[in-house]
Amino acid sequence: MNIKPLGEFTDSAALSLGVELELQLVSRRDFDLTRGATDLIGSLDYDGRFGEIKLEITESMIEISTLARSTVDGIAADLGGLRDTLRHHCERNNIGVCGGGTHPFHHWPERRICPGDRFTDLYQRYGYLAKQFTVFGQHIHVGCTSADDAIWLTQALGVYVPAFIALSASSPFVDGVDSFYQSARLNAVSAFPLSGQCPPLNSWQEFTEHFAFLQACGIAQGIKDLYWDVRPKPEFGTVELRVCDTPLTIEQATSLAALAQSLARWLLRIRPPLDTAKQAHVARYNKFQACRYGLEAMISDPLSLCQTPLKQTLASLLETVSEDARELACERWLSPLKLAVAGHAGDADWLREREKQHGNLNDVVREASQRLIGTDNETQEKTR
Amino acid sequence: MGNNSPSTLDSLLSLPRWLWEGLLDRLFFLPPFPERIDSLALFSLLLVVGLLIGEWLHAHARWPRVIGYVLAGIVFGPSSLGWISIEALAQARPIADAALGLLMMEVGRRLDLSWLRHNPELLRSTFTDIALSFALIFAFALWLVGLTPAWAAATAAVTMASAPAVVLLTIEEARAQGQVTERIILHTTISSAASFVAFALVLGVVHAELSEDWLNAVVHPLWVVAGALLVGGIGSWLALNIARILPKRSLAQVFVLVACALLAVGIGRMLAVPVFLTLFLMGVLLASRDRQQTLRYTALPEGHWLLAIVLFVIVGASLPWQEFTWLAGLQALGLLLVRAVAKAGAVAWSGGSLPLSKRLLVGVGIQPLSATAVFMAYELASLYPEVGRSALTLPLFAAAMMELVGPALCRLALRRSGECERGDPARGGVA
Fold first, then answer.
1. Which of A14-18, B261-265, B382-386 has the lowest mean pLDDT?
2. What residues of chain A lie within 8 A of the CB of B248, using their CB?
3. How far is the C-alpha of B229 from the C-alpha of B278, rounded, in Å?
4. The CATH number of the domain where A282 resides is what?
5. Which tens digit of pLDDT belongs to each residue from B258-270?
6. pTM for the model
7. CA dihedral over B314, B315, B318, B323, signed as positive or negative
8. Domains in chain B, start-ordered, CATH in brackets?
9. What is the pLDDT of residues A179-232, one digit of tens each?
10. Do B353 and A43 touch (CB under 8 A)?
11. DSSP-derived pairing of the beta strands A227-228 and A195-196
12. Can you tell me the distance from the alpha carbon of A366 to that of B188, in angstroms, rounded to the nearest whole number?
């Protein structure tokens, strides 16, 4: 077993941000997923000014990741630059690129694992799960100035996992059928043995001991084996929020990053008491609720011993973090989230509505692809 | 399967014929001894023979099935055993036209000029492929083989393009996906379009050279192009307008698509307009005029393999192997080498984002030369049969050789590029 030491926690600038988006590569002929990531990366003529464009586990996926930025506007600029770079190179290769947490109708056995030791190892270890892992998520990194802060923030953000799932939900279709879920993507992730919540740990010391224990038991080799919803990322000096579906637009992805940054600032500023042991009992249920019902979820509160509509808690959360958002100069990015909570259709609803309109999923992916690239009427209207 | 070639088949039939005729006096309900095989029976025999040989070669030698279908045609055709006679070939021609038509429509639907707009290197490589292939083949046929300029141009027009049907079926069989695959399709569709333009022009040139009648020299190319455009236009208009009222991707849409394609094949045959050109244009129009994506996602049914098998058995049987001479063989080999240099050179020279090794694989993948070339050659030869057949021996032999090698080269390119579907080797195609 190739054991990778955890390493030191690299302190980073407080509340700095980084965003990773996994995107779909689709055929422009029928908008099914297509294989093309390796050739696309091979033909890239790009100087890395907005961040990285890299391979993901299968040939039908591509990952873009921004540089570490202190502001949400910086993230928006990077994501825009990466999106345009990718669009240019995809057009040269006659490939479409699309957002969304799942491809609505692809046939997973047709997926091809990307070349590379890590991907081969994952395929050997997890078999068909690796191909079914052709799902597309957004990861948000929030910088922490100390390792203990990172562990505390990891625990604190755990409570808000359902909120991020519901706001980003964009994967209602799987295998060509409506799954009834707002976010079906996380069902593919939950099949992995080390997915789920970070155990109740109170300090970096406890975390390193827990990780050493997992390594000693032969369960994990490196930090990348932990598919937790929220996990510390020592080499970047960040906490990584990993539950979001890739939204249909980079604007929505930016809004989610704004919420993560504002919420982290509020949490680190207020330091509300955490009852991680009790939260652990309801975490899986609440996550299911958010995946299944999105913003209509009923969230269990293990402290008040009741259920509360997610919309209600989200509305008050968005109000609560408004001041921090103002301080971080990202308040305007929260507006789309407030609209969603107020009843505007989210990405999953948009996909269902388009499917109802067209009666087929090929056209849905075609329009979703235009939406990400910014060539559809609605996006152009918003940009104006 | 025919009735007049002095073949083993006739000797095999002599006893049943004698018995049957003996019974005719006693059993008045009996029809006369069937002199011709029924069309449906012929279709099924061609299908089964082609299928078995194709599957056997694929299973035992990993060869593309298309080679097996062609081999079946060669073995049982007039050149060898003679079980498929010239008459049987003529009888089966509507089936071959339907099969080729459907495949050409599919190729036409894949002509994606927007890719060229976004990628100048592809514009360069496809244009170079067309220009270099035509020029080198023309020069070879004119100066090295000694054909007249008209027939040298005809030879170049017929052989310059890659074989769309072979390429499409090989890709489908291998379930290939990726940049090499996509570029092979692009080169094939564009070079096919160019070869059809050249074909139409050459019609006029041949008329001009072989007769004093300038009216035919002018009107025949116009008739072919305008006729194909009109019939293809009607077919695509009908298909789109009928399909619009049906659910997208429904079986009903598939039937409408196939029915309109067969209608275009039929009208094309009635008007003596080449089926391959008509259906290619119908496919192009279907894709370009389908602004509401009515038929964009409606694919041909798997059953088109059924027709494709018969098509390639017939193509195999149509190849003039009985006229083979070593000189003709060497000349055809020379043409294929010149053509290979032109195609590989074009993709290698054009540069671009794809690495040279992969560009060369594209060059290998576009080598096939097949059904469309054979049909084009026979169309041209039929204009002036007394000279045409011998003048077009060169492209026919080149096609005959490439029928057997081309699918393997295309398959090799796809496999070496790593774009074939991995997994159960028995899957794909008709298996």
1. B382-386
2. 358-360, 362-363
3. 6
4. 3.30.590.20
5. 999 999 999 999 9
6. 0.88
7. negative
8. 94-416 (1.20.1530.20)
9. 999 999 999 988 888 889 999 888 999 999 999 999 899 888 888 888 899 999
10. yes
11. parallel
12. 26
- As given in the structure block, the two tokens for residue A257 are 């990053």
| In-domain check, residue A6 | no
pLDDT band at B210 (very low <50, low <70, confident <90, very high): confident
Which residues, in sequence order, are bridge partners of residue B228?
none
Flag if B110 and A29 touch (Cβ within 8 Å): yes
What tens digit of pLDDT does each residue of A141-191 get?
999 999 999 999 999 999 999 999 999 999 999 999 999 999 999 999 888
Closest CA to B39 of B314, B263, B374: B314
Mean pLDDT over A9-38 rounds to 93
**Token digits of residue A5:** 């030491």
B297/A362 touch (CB, cutoff 8 Å), yes or no: yes
- pLDDT above 80 for B287: yes
On whether residue A7 sits in a domain, the answer given is no
Q: How far is A382 from chain B (nearest CA, A)?
A: 24
Q: A28 contacts in B (CB within 8 Å)?
A: 112
Residues B105-150: pLDDT tens digits? Answer: 999 999 888 898 889 889 999 999 999 999 999 999 999 998 989 8
Q: For chain A, what is the domain count?
A: 1
Q: Residue A160 sits in which domain range?
A: 17-383
CB contact under 8 A, B354 and A34: no
Going by the DSSP 8-state scheme, the letter that residue A225 receives in this structure is G
Residue of B nearest to A111 (CA): B421
CA nearest neighbour of A132 among A115, A110, A100, A117: A110
Task: Give Cβ neighbours of residue B183 (< 8 Å, ≥ 6 apart).
Answer: B122, B347, B354, B362
Mean pLDDT within B89-98: 87
CB A282, CB A302: distance < 8 Å: yes
Segment A307-316 long-range contacts (CB within 8 Å, at least 24 positions apart): A310/A162, A310/A163, A310/A166, A311/A341, A313/A163, A314/A163, A314/A166, A314/A167, A314/A341, A315/A341, A315/A342
Q: For residue B249, list chain A residues with Cβ-Cβ distance below 8 A.
A: 360, 362
Task: State the smallest CA–CA distance between residue A92 and chain B in angstroms.
Answer: 5
> From residue B340, how far is each of A318, B122, B129, B335 by CA, in Å?
66, 18, 10, 8
**Side-chain half-sphere exposure of B111, counting CA atoms within 13 A:** 25
- pLDDT at residue B431 is higher than 80: no
Q: How far is CA A12 from CA A59, A234, A321, B186, in A?
A: 33, 10, 22, 49
> Where would I find the H helices in B271-366?
275-288, 304-318, 326-349, 356-365
The pLDDT assigned to B303 comes to: 73
What is the structure's pLDDT at A2? 65
Angle between helix B371-381 and B149-159 (nearest 10): 150
Q: Which among A92, A109, A363 is the nearest to B118, CB-wise?
A: A92
Q: Which residues are CB-contacts of B232 (< 8 A; sequence separation ≥ 6)?
A: B264, B278, B279, B280, B281, B282, B283, B284, B285
- Give me the percent of chain A exceeding a pLDDT of 90: 74
Q: What are phi and psi of A229, to 5 degrees?
A: -65, -40
CB-CB neighbours of B93 under 10 Å: 15
- Asked if pLDDT for residue A369 goes beyond 50, the answer is yes
* Domain presence at residue A2: no
pLDDT band at A384 (very low <50, low <70, confident <90, very high): very low
Q: Taking a C-beta distance cutoff of 8 angstroms, is the pair A168, A174 a contact?
A: no
